[in-house]
Write a structure and sequence with these properties.
about 350 residues; alpha+beta; Methane Monooxygenase Hydroxylase, Chain G, domain 1; BirA Bifunctional Protein, domain 2; 2 domains; 7-stranded mixed beta sheet; 3-stranded antiparallel beta sheet; binds 3,4-dihydroxyphenylalanine
Amino acid sequence: MTESLRERLEQLRREVERELETANGPARVEEIRVRTLGKKGALTAEAKAIGALPPAERPEAGELVNAIKDALEAAIAAREADLAGSELSRRLEAEALDVTLPARRRGQGTRHPLSIVTADLLDVFRRMGFSVASGPEVETPWHNFEALNIPAGHPAREEMDTIYLAGRDLLLRTHTSPVQIRVMESREPPVRVVCPGRVFRSDTPDASHSPYFHQIEGLWVEEGISLAHLKWALVEFVHQFFGPDVDTRFRPSYFPFTEPSGELDMQCLLCRGGGCRTCKGTGWLELLGCGMVHPAVLEAVGWDSERYTGFAWGMGVERVAMLKYGVPDIRMFFENDVRFLRQFEGR
Ligand code: DAH
């Protein structure tokens, strides 16, 4: 076999391979195939020409032509498969149809305004050294009334009418004050606690009444505690929670479980003391009831009322939340209307 023949065959192979590489579609590959391997193709012509070679050269030339033919057939098939693959992916992309639904957003929820206010109130008292205690919502009459110096037949019991269970052996607590009793029953003095919780009264709901609401009770009993401590703690609380410029005043009052008893008013936040609808023209808002723990309460839990003294207070969480956020109706806290609740997102 002459070198020029080998050279020509190899060159044909290289050319066809190069053309295949840049062939950009199945039609072009087919055209290359026909032109090379078809009946009148370039390689076919070379195969036919072998017969005209001297007999000694024929086997080698035949072998080379066949090898090139096999190689090109394989290259053509590979290129065809390649193009079919990319054609498919192009079509898939162009004709793609997204049948997935966007995921349904799961609301993260938000803290209830009463939870926010309770946590903020407790924070202030924690910084003053109070710890947090809690008690049951279903109470005994002893804890809710008698131990708090409210004997059967006492008029204060009428005001705090509630739902009784198990005959009249248990009741839904009417205030958080029974937690004072439970704390003192289970510990030794001194105690300094705040007790948040839900309370119940048989009230007809209206803008300012609800048969259930929340209170925070406070109790500090220790040797040497006086009215001055009460005044300091509660005024300090108002200043920390509502602002250092808010005025306060104490008024005498009556609770069976404190002596003396008082109520703490704060300057109306809306009119700053000038008088408006919220404060009924007085410039003051009632904030909480308080007093020095009655000796009878200390004796009821077996604590020596000659040695220990203390003060206590109780306040409504809804009332504070209504003032803080300007909520006009207490029922809004319990209706679970998300349009109301969403306004507290992120607070
Ligand atoms: N328990 C009272 C109520 O529900 C609030 C209260 C007043 C609690 C004075 C106290 C207190 O501890 O000293 O109306």
